[in-house]
Write a structure and sequence with these properties.
Blueprint: E1 2-6, E2 9-10, E3 15-19, E4 23-27, E5 35-36, E6 39-40, E7 44-45, E8 52-56, E9 59-61, E10 70-71, H1 77-85, E11 87-91, E12 96-102, H2 112-118, E13 121-123, E14 131-133, E15 138-140, H3 144-156
Parallel strand pairs: 1-4, 2-7, 3-8, 4-9, 9-14, 13-15
Antiparallel strand pairs: 5-6, 10-12, 11-12
């Protein structure tokens, strides 16, 4: 249990990342930690690996408010004001906020559009009741069970 602040995690073959109840993996909001060869790397990778799992009842918090664009219509007035207080870039006639030109973190690309293109897609298999929050990558579900687990986690927090 406890809170573990980290940069990217690379899993090897035959690894189970088990999160006990009360454990939180919190990814750093410092985008530079996720830059490799001019591209952003996902918070968790297991490329070309076998028998990899993430289990347990803990939480993986990708610190997504520092990473992903937010649609104005998807958040409350209070949340929107919180995003604006962080700095950032509002585009598309005020309906979309990007984490670019933030007050406390440097940009990793010359424009918000280029920074968005740096984000990567990642495939992920999970088991049990592990919760994901604000990952800095897009999760591409590979099963019906996975979609249902992500829906449950999104609706609860």
């Amino acid at each position: 249990a406890g809170i573990w602040l980290t940069g990217p995690i690379g899993l090897k073959s035959r690894i189970d990342l088990h999160l006990e109840r009360g454990a939180i993996i919190l990814f750093t909001p410092e985008k530079e930690a996720f830059l490799k060869d001019g591209k952003m790397v996902p918070g968790i990778t297991a490329s070309k690996r076998e028998d990899v799992s993430i289990t347990g009842e803990g939480v993986i918090d990708g610190n997504g408010e520092w990473w992903r664009a937010v649609k104005r219509g998807k958040v409350s007035d209070t949340e929107w004001k919180d995003y604006l207080r962080m700095g950032g870039t509002v585009a598309e006639e005020g309906s979309l906020w990007y984490p670019f030109d933030l007050k406390h973190y440097p940009n990793v690309a010359p424009s918000y559009r280029e920074q968005e293109r740096l984000r990567t897609h990642c495939g992920l298999q999970i088991a049990n009741e592990c919760w994901f929050k604000g990952l800095p990558c897009r999760i591409l579900p590979s099963s019906t069970w996975f979609r249902s687990a992500v829906s449950r986690s999104s609706s609860t927090g």
